[in-house]
Amino acid sequence: MATVSIRALNKKYENGFHAVKDVSLEIRDKEFMVLVGPSGCGKTTTLRMVAGLEEISEGEVRIGEQVVNDLPPMDRNIAMVFQNYALYPHKSVYDNMAFGLQMRGYAKEEIARRVQEAAEILGIESLLARKPRQLSGGQRQRVAVGRAIVRHPQVFLFDEPLSNLDAQLRVQMRVELKRLHERLETTAIYVTHDQVEAMTLGDRVVVMKDGRVQQVGEPLELYGRPANKFVASFIGSPAMNFVDVTVAEAGGALWAEAEGLRVKMPAPLAARARARAGQRLTLGVRPEALVIANGADDYSFATAVDVVEPLGNEILLNFRAGGVAMVARVDPAVRLKVHESVRFALDPERVHLFDAASEAAL
Amino acid sequence: MLIERKWKKWFLFYLPMAAFIAFTLFPFYWMAITAFRPDAELYATWRQPNAAPLWTLHPTLEHFVGLMQTTAFPTWLWNTMLIAVVSTLISLVCGMFAGYALARLRFRGSEFLGTAIFVTYLVPQTLLFIPLADIVRDLQLGNTPWALMLTYPTFLIPFCTWLLMGYFKTIPKELEECARIDGATRFGAMVRIIFPVAVPGILSAGIFAFTLSWNEFIYALVFMASADQKTVPVGVVSELIRGDIFFWGQLMMGALLGSVPVALVYSFFVEYYVTGLTGSVKG
Q: What is the ipTM of this complex?
């Protein structure tokens, strides 16, 4: 149980590659913090620096009150679950889980008790005598988690632990990990490239890109108030729709205009965007913030549907507006055919504007 | 259809396979049959009546007895075994540590060192034995088993290092990272996790090194002078070919007995040996 504080962390490789740039994070005690981002964004490197597997070029990592920059991994009191599980192939499941305790000189009875306890939590009591190669993917995953929890570490580190599992098992293990965290109340740092995993597991989520932190926040905060266009596009599936627009003032209101599209900006957003009148901005709207309009109003525009994707619980309507392809998520009761013309209205509460150059949210 | 396919399989697979096996095994068969053939049959012309050049009608142990009584064959066998085992052990230990370092540690000049070690392996023994003979004489090791136990590793260590380096690279590095988080030092992780996982690779390196030193000829010929210090390959050739007389029966008996230990070692570890060469480790 500990806080982890990362200050101005940098990683520069010998070949000049700058993998992690000025990352600062305060991870609270018992918090489940998820680092998410596309591959090569520096999330795994950050995690490995916390683990002590990668040298820190600049900056500081503290676990609890202690600066751990120069401590070897074994002295940081952490446990890590790897993407490929990294089970010791020559040891039985029991010995895999016991190894960390044996290395730390625990008494035999204590080791047996802890392994048994962890095995019960994870439902792998019957597998203790087996070798890793006799286990299925899901079972290996459990053993890897078990090996981490027997040590009662201060911090759990997870490096994409679910990405080698098939889709169904991944969803199941995701829920189990969440449940396990509720039960153990240990600080956890979890790295993934899957935004759904990030949103469902994290108490807070860190979105990274090109070595930099883009935004830190609770899942719904990231979804509802993305700090920039990258976060807006990375979180959510299907992704947010973006249209390049020009804002213009007319009749006391602010209007966003693009080819074949003219919509009024809601008041709070207009207040922030007024100074940018006449400039190019990017309008962002999530698929579910586009609703089918009954009549023409200031927030709606006309278009024709070109692809209909009926998913059962929802229907995705693909169309073109403002010169780009867009998607709307609508109720499954909606009956629309391809090429049928339709009016969509923006939900004024859920419209975003981004600076075209810096991509920061207004 | 089915018949045609069966016929094809016979023609394209079993027949060439059988021919190949016959081709490779015939020398061994010839060696074995010669070792048990009485001299009268060995030196008889093939055209004489009742001649059976491909098998023997009167198997005999006379060559075995002759080999044991007239030569120091048991001593040669013992010398070869001792030298092969010691030089293999030395080379394996050095190769394991060097291979691990080259595969895993990033240090200045590691790539150059790896290439340099490989190049040493490529220098032919027929060149190296000249300077080595000088060193052996200076250290006064000539005509002692140490001369070979210490010179064989000069080509065995590079060999083991390269084979093991390749094998260590196939072991996921997460295994030792995990061990280091679990509380092991780098050295501890290497000894407790990497070496046990690499057993197939280590065994195949060992088998190769053992075979190479067992069969080694030129160093053994140059560094060992007296009959009781010789190894099997040198002893058999130098003591059983006297002038222009070849003692074929005893030569072949010596070769047969000399190849038995190697064959035993191979058959014992064959499974490890195959996975060691094709090597893959899954976590």
A: 0.84
